[in-house]
Write a structure and sequence with these properties.
- There is one protein chain.
- The protein is α+β, with helices and mostly antiparallel strands.
- Among the domains are: 61 residues, no CATH class; 82 residues, no CATH class.
- It has 4 helices and 15 strands.
Length: 333
């Protein structure tokens, strides 16, 4: 091979593309005795005299395409950054023994996210359908927010469905549904679990008149933009109806109110008014009956008095006549 020549000559620091390097290898393998399947079993170094991998590049590398493991039907390919403890991306072929057809993102050997073979994107979890069913994207966090959305000028989060049979959002706790955001195509409804199978109706029912009487509700302005609104004050509502108020853990936290829980309170108040009105209606009907009876009795008494007055008048007239006759007889004598 001492008399072999190569097509391209390179010096230290010069630039070469992959086609030129491949042509020089082909020249070296075939110059003395052409090989049917030329191969090279050593390591190739670019920018380093002691390559530790099949291809070891010291410095930056630029390529239009990167191919790992050919058609990616073998076990796996990995792109690592910095060192073995740094971030890495692993590509698993369709025939890989572990997580076939997936792309995993790791840091210090710990997986944080992956693209699944079903096209899903998973963050913080390795199993699609870990909650209630398969999802296009699934985020899991054991301690902090699993997903945050932020936008400076546009919408931070957009939810869309094209069928009223589907929910805009489905809310779960420990795998069980507890609420949803649904649409009829024109408006949105916010639903929370109210299944009677989850409840025990108490024998003793509270009287909420005092709550309604002392609950402040009225007009107010938001200090931020002076916009007008109508509602309650969470701190004041907590003193009379704590079931509908969230009290923050620290003084710096903001109080919150569940307006949905005030709706049953309003319904209770309306039903209570109905009871009072019905009771007053019964009392009014009874009073009307008593008045009618008294009126009838008065009319009867008036008729009796009328006839008695006539009789008194007749008797009086008769008595006057008799007196006059007696006076005339006495005069005649």
């Amino acid at each position: 091979m001492a008399n072999c020549t190569v097509t391209y000559s390179f010096s230290n620091g010069s630039t070469a593309d992959a086609n030129q390097v491949n042509k020089n290898f082909s020249d070296l393998f075939n110059c003395a005795a052409p090989l049917a399947n030329p191969s090279f079993t050593g390591n190739v170094g670019i920018g380093t005299a002691s390559p530790s991998q099949k291809l070891d590049v010291s410095g930056s590398a630029n390529a239009d395409n990167w191919y790992l493991d050919g058609s990616m039907t073998g076990s796996a390919g990995t792109i690592g950054f910095s060192n073995s403890n740094g971030p890495a991306i692993q590509f698993f072929g369709a025939s890989a023994s572990s997580t076939p057809g997936t792309t995993r993102f790791l840091t210090a050997g710990t997986e944080h996210a992956r693209f699944g073979s079903d096209g899903s994107f998973l963050a913080g979890t390795t199993a699609n359908g870990g909650w209630i069913g398969n999802a296009t994207a699934e985020f899991f966090s054991p301690a902090t927010q699993a997903l945050s959305a932020y936008s400076i000028s546009g919408n931070a989060l957009v939810l869309r469905v094209d069928s009223t049979a589907n929910n805009l959002a489905w809310l779960t706790y420990n795998g069980s549904g507890i609420g949803s955001i649904a649409t009829n195509g024109s408006s949105v409804s916010f639903n929370t679990t109210s299944d009677e199978r989850l409840k025990t109706v108490l024998t003793h029912q509270k009287d909420y008149r005092d709550v309604i009487e002392h609950l402040w509700v009225g007009d107010f302005e938001w200090k931020r933009d002076h916009s007008h609104s109508f509602g309650i004050l969470a701190q004041q509502a907590y003193s009379v109806f704590p079931e509908a108020v969230y009290k923050p853990a620290t003084d710096a936290g903001l109080w919150q109110a569940d307006y949905g829980k005030f709706a049953p309170l309003a319904i209770w108040g309306v039903k209570d008014i109905y009871k009072v009105v019905e009771k007053q209606g019964d009392q009014l009907a009874s009073l009307k009956a008593e008045v009618a009876l008294l009126k009838s009795q008065i009319e009867t008494m008036q008729r009796v008095n009328y006839h008695q007055a006539l009789e008194v008048k007749r008797l009086t007239a008769r008595s006057v006549t008799e007196v006059r006759r007696q006076a005339a007889r006495n005069h005649a004598m």
